[in-house]
Specification:
Layout lengths: L1 H11 L7 H10 L1 E4 L4 E11 L2 E12 L2 E9 L10 H15 L4
Length: about 100
């Protein structure tokens, strides 16, 4: 929920001490996919604590006047060497966005 709250503030341009120019730069850097129908702004993260991997993919989709915010957290139950963990966070999110009809 903290990630979503941050993303909403970013989208609205309400990030406290950051200038509108800085926020615009950040939004542009976060574009991971842009089509004629939608724009996805997102970022990944990954941490290893006590040998356990946790990865995330957070962002939002802009489609016309509509916005969808997402935060996907992935804790693999198998070794990350058995699959592409880095890509899996994105793939899971994109599959859900497609199945929901967002993109």
């Amino acid at each position: 929920m903290e990630q979503i709250s941050f993303l909403v503030k970013l989208h609205q341009g309400n990030l406290g001490p950051f200038s509108p120019e800085t926020i615009a730069i950040m939004k542009n850097i976060m574009i991971t996919e842009a089509t004629n129908d939608y724009v996805i702004r997102a970022k990944t993260g990954w941490v290893i604590r006590q040998g356990n991997n946790t990865g995330w993919y957070v962002g939002y989709v802009e489609k016309g006047q509509k916005k969808w915010f997402f935060a996907t957290n992935v804790d693999p139950l198998i070794s990350t060497e058995q699959f592409n963990f880095a890509q899996a966070r994105i793939d899971v999110t994109m599959k859900v966005l497609r199945e929901m009809g967002v993109i």
